[in-house]
Amino acid sequence: MYRTHTKLKSIGLEHLCDMTNGAGIKRAVLSVKNAIFQSYLTEWNKSISRTESIRGQGGNKLRVYKTFKQEFGVEPYNETNIPRSHRRALALFRCTLTR
To answer: Is the pTM of this model over 0.70?
Structure first.
């Protein structure tokens, strides 16, 4: 229970720790989900914007990634209804892998 309280406090939702009735549970869950996702997005943006690596040894490997991807989300080719082999080919192309 302590870890739950600590996590809720860290994302600014400590008021949810005192809920005793079930009336606002769905709203509370949605609030927690949104707050955790926003926290993740903030950390993601920090990690791709960092100039040095996490360990401080050399440059950040994500600096090239940042030139192509600035928004967090699923790529459109993953959401379209195309054959799996075509999705695979697009993914390999994006990763610059060839056979």
So the answer is: no
